[in-house]
Every structure is written in structure tokens, then in C-alpha cells.
Amino acid sequence: MSDLSDALERGEFVATSEIGPPKGTNIEPCLADAEQLRGKVVAINVTDIQSAVMRFGSLATCHMLVERGLEPVFQMVCRDRNRLALQSDLLSAYGLGIRNVLCLTGDHTVLGDHPESKPVFDLDSVGLLQCVSALCEGHDMAGNELDGAPDLYAGAVVTPGADPIEPQLLKMEKKIKAGARFFQTQAVYDVDRFIEFMKSVAGFGVPVMAGLVLLKSVGMARFMNKNVSGVHVPEPLIARLKEDKAKTKSGETAVQIAVETIAAIRDHCQGVHFMPLGWDHLVPEIMDRAGLS
Amino acid sequence: MIAQTPKPLEEILEYLRGKRKVVLYGCGGCATVFHTGGEPEVKAMEKTLTEHGKEVLAAVAPPFGEFTCYLPWSKPRLSQYREQVEQCDALLIMACGDGLQTVWDHIIEEEFGLAKPVYPATNPIGHMGGGPSRFEEKCQQCGECELGRTAGVCPQTQCAKGLMNGPCGGASADGKCEANPEQDCAWLRIYRRLEAMGELDKLREINPPKDWSKMTRPRSIEVVPLELA
Predict the structure, then answer these.
(1) Is 0.85 exceeded by the ipTM?
(2) How far is Cα A202 from Cα A180, in angstroms, rounded to an integer?
(3) pTM (2 d.p.)
(4) Residue A150's domain spans which residues?
(5) Cβ–Cβ gap B170/A163 under 8 Å
């Protein structure tokens, strides 16, 4: 169906990465970011109005990747479209050559740059997965038969560091029941906790790719610890970022931490999903040093 | 109850610009509880408008319990002041939007046959329960109550995203909502209640997407009238 589905189904240890479209029409730098990942990662996620900050669209960017021979993962959130628009965009995505779709709830509008907007959330992530499954079975959510059904590889997200973890696990099971065939996780820094999480989902039988957000600075680590739920950067990592400012600035520390994280988790999950936040050029190096190329 | 806050005086005076004779009508229900249209507020408004050069022909403050949105009460009440209503340039309703529209549609237009402006003095902010001081929004009258499946916590109203199938992953370490840090994550509350009752299996069932056709507005209903003493 897609390179991503093939690789995961073959049981390979798979790497994906992520790009974020710009605020404006200047899409070239974003495509250049993607270009740096060519031949390295299997697929590239394109975020969908990430953090509820209005931007260039995920669907259009995914299509541009397809045109360039790069495989996209179309991220789709439930915040901005009702079920009519979601289904229509899923059909359009398939028509534009997109094969992977990652189904998310989406950040709330009040956290973004248009807090006055009306949040939609007609479906939640589980409902969106059911919706993808229905379309792939040849009918829409209302049961009407489709003239041509898409064939999409649907994925979902999970937060392995959530506390309590049980509601996340229950929801993950629902997502699988609704049609999720792979998972990409929230950022992983606490390796022990992630391995613990992987043990509890071992029976689910669905590939999980660990999220890796490159650590750019001490400030970023502290910000995530304070503001991003389910993400915990352990103090020893923060100490390393503090230790050698030049190496932190150049990204060398981030690369080292990512390489070590991959080494520690690779026997426990089925891949990694990089969220480089502009440091896309470092992804190939991390993959080389981690032996993933 | 319909929680409400008073509109700024400047906005009210703007509505009443060029209108000298005014009739005030409060509410003995929610507007009394929220201090936006009970007797003290109606009296204070009468004084304020008089100071701003208005002539208040009537300042009607129904007794506690007499809802302005309920026609069997408001129609006879306002009919007592029909003469003043006919003479006034505008009415100011110190009640929620239900009160104002019910009065304008069914009393001013239908009953009195008048083309007369009726202005609002409050901003209704939600259907809430609680008191005597704190009130919270618990229900959005969706037409299809989910509480039997969600441990008595409405995921449509208590969760900022109205999720049907569990938490979004945005709850903070202390269980607060990312969209509103003062609010407990509704799905963590549901989880904890079901856990305490040994009914976590309820969380395994996928709840289908909400049927929003039941909220197609405006909604209406016919009921058997109450026998009022």
C-alpha cells in the first residue's frame, strides 16, 4: 500500500521524520527540509496546522512531496473540519497519491494564534480512524456507497509518558479497534519509562515508533518539562546540554542523545519518528551513527 | 440556571440613544440569582437611567421565583404595565436572551401588537448549576444525554474538545486541561470514577461520533401546560 506499511509489515526498524509547513506561501524551505531526508527516512509526516497556528496546508504539502517522489504521512486533526470536510479531504488525499494518514485530535484553538476561532471537534481521533476505515471499506460514515474507495494506511499517536498511563492504554486499544495500524509516540527521553510502556502494549500487536524531538537547548528542555504533558526530559540530559554550550548549539549534543536513545529502545519498539523542528539536516547523521541507514 | 453578567452601561446607553421613555423589566429567576435583573438591580438601573436623562415609566421587578421566560407568569405581569409599554420608546430587559426574546415575540408583538425595541441588559454565559456563589457549566443540552456511559461527567461540556473516547493527552501532570488550566481533565475524572466503581470496562467501548442533528437550532417542544395555583 505504501513504503511505510510495507516496511512496518516486514518487521523492519523504520524511521520517519516530520516537516511543518510555513506561515505563508514560501513553501520552498519546507520542501528543502524534506529533501534532506530523501533516501534516509521511509516517510515524512506533514503537520496539520500544528499547535493551532494557521499555516500552509498539510494536504497540499503532502501532494508536493508525492510529486517529488517522497512519501508523505498526511497528518489530520479533528479541530478544523467537520465529518463532511474530513471525509472529502481523505478522498482528495487518496486522489493526490497520498497513502498514509495519521489521525489526531489536534491542539485546542485557544492555544494557537487564532484563539477566537470556533473549534470543531465533530469527531475525535477514534472517530476519525473509524471514518478512514469506513471509507477504505467503500462507504462513507453515513453508510452511502462510494464510487471508488481509497486505500489508506491509518496511524495514530499515543503518549507513553502520560500519568496515569491507563487511560492512554485504553484509548490506544480503542484506536486499534477503530483501525489504527501503526503508532507514533509523543517525544521520548525517559528511556526506562518508555520500555515499561512498550511492555504493557506488547500484546496489542501494532507497530510503535518512538517519537524523538531533538533537544536544541536547556530552555527548550525546561519548557517541555513545564508545558508539554507526558514529556519529561530527565535532569542528566539537561545537565549535558548545560555542560558544553558549543556542542549544544551545534546540535552535537542533540545528535548524541538521539543516537543513545535509539540504541536503548531499538529492541523494544519498531521504529523512530523524528520531530527535528528545523534541525532536519541532523537526521541523516543521527541515522548513520545509530546504524539505521 | 442561565448564568449571566451585566452588560457595560455604555453599551446599554448606546442602545437607548435617542430613546427617552424606558420600561425596565427584570426577572425573578436566574437574573435574580446572578444579580443582573433582580429587584435591587432593577432599582439601581432605574436610578442610573434617570441620572442619564431617561424617564423610566415602569421598573418591573418580579418576585423571586417568577421567571420572565415563562409566559404564564410574564404575560400577566407585563400586561399590568401595558399602558407604560405603549407609551415608552424602548424596553430594557434585565434577563437572559430567552427572557428577552420570549417577551418581544410573544408579549410585545403577539399580545400587544406593538413594534417597539426591546434591548438586553445582560450577557448570558451558559446553562449552569451550583450556588450559592459558585456556578459551573455541566450540560449543553445536546439532546442525547451521555452521562450514563461517562460516569456522570459530560465529555461534551466538561472536556474543551468534547471528546467521546478518552483523554487527548494534553492533560497536565496535575490532571488539568491544557485549554483551561483551572479545569480538571474531564476524562481523567471519568476514568477515576469508573475505576473507583470497578467499571473500567465501560471505557473499552467505542462511543460513536455525536449526533449533532439533535442540536439543529432552534429547537422547540410542546408540553402539557402546568396547572398554576
Answers:
(1) yes
(2) 15
(3) 0.93
(4) 3-209
(5) no
